[in-house]
Design goal:
The chain is mainly alpha-helical. The chain has helices at residues 14-36, 46-49, 54-66, 70-87, 95-115, 123-133, 141-182, 190-205, 210-222, 224-263, 273-300, 305-308, 316-337, 341-352, 354-369, 382-406, 411-421. The protein has one domain (9-421). It is built from 17 helices and no strands. α1 crosses α4 (70-87). The relative contact order is 0.17.
Length: 431
């Protein structure tokens, strides 16, 4: 039996690479906040927006409307599609090859999280969820859609429960605080005190006192060693709570949706133009409506935690999924019609080097914002950070196609293939 081999260039599906490149660039709009601002700003925009300029508020609203959650959703959908492509059909790989490939993705994620100092890494989550996908690789489109739908429903119900629970905790906290300030003689119940403590602990995790903010700045900016220590503490919480409670199921649902969409020919731009037009219009209509409502509620509440924290919004997954499907419809139309060929060629190159470009984001930002390099954390506003995003986009849209003219793979993609297959694939193109 011949040993398994990587997918050849001739067998690549351009639409998948285009969508992947689009999502890779888009996800930096979210991640740059985690890189360049203090940690609460990533999930608690009120931490910095309550005293920011109108331009910063507008930039937050635009990114929240068009990209927040949607780009991660696209990535997960494409990862699921990639597992189907990798493990089934005439070129299907064995379970051993799949799990070896997944193991090395996990190693890249840990490298990104600890060595490149990025506590928002998603590769570890993808490796863990991806390990499960081999078991459902041959399920029907209908079964995968139902499973994804059930998970999305359950996650949304969890958001509802958490929102109600923390809402009650906040009310108890207000009662306890008011009573304490007024010097009231009325005894506060033990239940109220316990609920108030829940709110205190939650808000302390996603907010910082002035002294804590200064301590984070010093830790992340002073040296690589101090930034590493701070990052380790953040990753411990990520791996012990955030991934098992939220991110794993989030990724798994969208990955199974991606498997279904690939099997139905949606991601390969094989459906009719009318189909993609309907998908684009329907997706954007629902996504923009839901996200717009959430943004208005957040602004109306003066960016209160209960109105801005993603995992407390019942409609969060519906809004991000609507936007992701809208983008799939839009890019499907673009690929079918051959529109913007220069841009789509560059996006496809970025997508083919997605792992390299993703890790490049972390490397560039670690050098810019941490003690690894310049230590500029907290020196830029949101709108200024997006100027840096545009510069990184410009570099990657230029560098990726230039690299692939000389080489068959991105450098990290080449290493991943070598580790997966146990052979060194030819890197340089023949002249």
């Amino acid at each position: 039996m011949s040993s398994p081999q990587p997918i050849s260039e001739s067998n690549r599906i351009e639409s998948l690479d285009v969508v992947r490149g689009f999502a890779l660039l888009g996800i930096l709009l979210l991640n740059i906040i985690g890189f360049g601002l203090l940690s609460p700003s990533y999930s608690n925009p009120g931490f910095d927006l309550s005293h920011s300029s109108f331009a910063d508020i507008l930039s937050w609203a635009a990114v929240d409307l068009f990209a927040e959650g949607a780009m991660r959703c696209l990535f997960s959908i494409l990862f699921g599609a990639g597992v189907v492509l990798f493990t089934t059909g005439a070129t299907g790989r064995s379970a051993w090859t799949h799990y070896r490939r997944t193991f090395w993705l996990l190693m890249f994620g840990l490298f990104n999280a600890f060595i490149l100092l990025w506590p928002g890494d998603i590769l570890v989550t993808y490796a863990l969820a991806g390990a499960f996908l081999y078991l459902v690789r041959e399920k029907s489109v209908r079964t995968l859609l139902i499973a994804a739908g059930v998970l999305i429903l359950l996650m949304s119900l969890l958001h509802v429960a958490m929102g109600f629970g923390l809402g009650f905790s906040k009310q108890a906290y207000d009662r306890v605080t008011t009573s304490s300030i007024a010097g009231a003689t009325t005894e506060i119940s033990d239940q109220d005190r316990e609920l108030a403590q829940v709110w205190e602990e939650f808000s302390a995790d996603v907010d910082l006192l002035e002294t804590d903010a200064e301590a984070e700045l010093i830790a992340r900016n002073s040296s690589y060693a101090s930034a590493f220590q701070w990052t380790v503490s953040q990753n411990v919480e990520l791996y012990s709570f955030v991934i098992p409670v939220f991110l794993f199921w989030d990724a798994l649902a969208m990955m199974m949706l991606g498997m279904a969409l690939y099997k139905a020919g949606v991601l390969q731009a094989q459906r009719s133009r009318r189909f993609y037009l309907n998908l684009m219009v329907g997706g954007f209509a629902s996504g923009l409506l839901i996200n717009g409502y959430e943004i208005s509620e957040a602004y109306r509440s003066d960016f209160h935690l209960l109105a801005t924290f993603p995992q407390l919004q019942a409609t969060y997954h519906l809004g991000r999924l609507g936007m992701a499907l809208g983008y799939i419809g839009m890019l499907g139309l673009v690929c079918q019609a051959g529109l913007f060929s220069g841009l789509t060629t560059r996006l496809a190159a970025v997508g083919r080097m997605a792992l390299t470009n993703y890790l490049m984001h972390s490397l560039i930002c670690a050098i810019l914002f941490t003690g690894m390099g310049l230590g500029l954390l907290g020196q830029f506003s949101r709108i200024e950070l997006y100027v840096i995003v545009l510069l990184i986009w410009w570099v990657q849209l230029g560098l990726s196609p230039a690299w692939l003219k000389r080489y068959r793979f991105g450098p990290i993609e080449w290493l991943w293939r070598a580790l997966t297959y146990g052979t060194w694939p030819e890197m340089r193109r023949s002249v």
